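pipeline/complex-builder :: batch 7 item 3
reading input block
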Amino acid sequence: MQWIKPDTKIDFVGKRSYFFLFSLALIALSGLSFLWPKPNWGIDFAGGTELRVRFVKPVKIGEIRSAVDGLGLGESQIQNLRPGIGEAPGHNDFIIRAEQQASQEGKETAAAGKLITDKLGEKFGEDAFQVLAIDYVGPKVGKELRMSAVKALVFAMIGILFYVSIRFEFRYALGAVLALFHDALISAGVYNVIQREWSLAIIAALLTIIGYSVNDTIVVFDRIRENVRKARRGSLREIVNQSINETLSRTILTNFATMLAVAFLAFFGSGVIRDFAIIMSFGMVVGTYSTIYIASSLVLLYEDVRNRGSAGAARTEKSRKPLPVSK
Amino acid sequence: MKTARKSIQEILNQAVNESFGRTALAASASAIAIALLSLFGLGVVGALSPAVLCAALAGTLLASWVASALVILYDYLTSGKAALGEQER
């Protein structure tokens, strides 16, 4: 079964200005999503106390909230975890998060977990639940982790810029890195909009998206390079279009196969794995789009700007008349 | 002029050779990005990236040396069965 015929001739780069505008709008909206509705920072970044609790009998979120809110631990978040693959339906796992208080640093932070378990024991009975895990993260550690994630992201992009510049040319490297930035930012924006929680695993997912997306982009660039060598005539625009068409089937086929695996994780996974798979699936869709419509078009844009610059310089050189020599 | 039909082994070998440069290039680009993550990432990021790096390297090796070889093996087994079926008929 062949979905995409080998002789497809779709003009991908012809309408590149529209796709640039579309992508710019998405990037702007994604940037705005960091201001509104704002990322839902998890304990890794915001700091605080997180407990995973399993109740023996079904319990309503409201009942747990009323117990935790009375403790004066700041804003609390309670989430009912759905069962993962292989777990019995109807299990009562909850994640309880208490905000980090400025006065709670150090040993008092650890006490927050005990306060919550004591209160739950008082309300539901000691045998009514089991504490599966308790995590404490201080605000300083959260900030450090956030900075480390940003640093890792920047270094990964610089590494790709250098590598692609060495193996190809700078224009390809620039196209690839801008396309990766586009993928990461839009995926993060969509994730903000659906208000899923940001944890370190989500940063890892963003970085995995970058690693995966560059793979696809490089394949198209390599085909462009091959076709540029082979071509005896035709503009770069035509060669780029031809190369995207030639690799289209491969791009869609590999992304679809990976997407299937990720989609299964997003539907049937739970907790962090589910969040990881959700952002990965956004990233893969955006990555495929940028591979086809943005990365190569950016190479063309770079070439256009450079040519216009050199043509302008040539015109200026021609129009420059020698100044009359005064005697 | 008619040319002899190539065996599946020859076709796969040619295909793997043709795409080998591209496979290695794409995998090395991803590997560089992931290696930098394992150097600079903390926590889950630092823990996940070596695993992804191993998977990327293993995946590249498998794509070139194992996946196509399995197709040849499958073809060999099924063509053997088909030949047996012909004989029985």
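note: Residues 271-319 of chain A form the longest helix (49 residues).
queue -> next item
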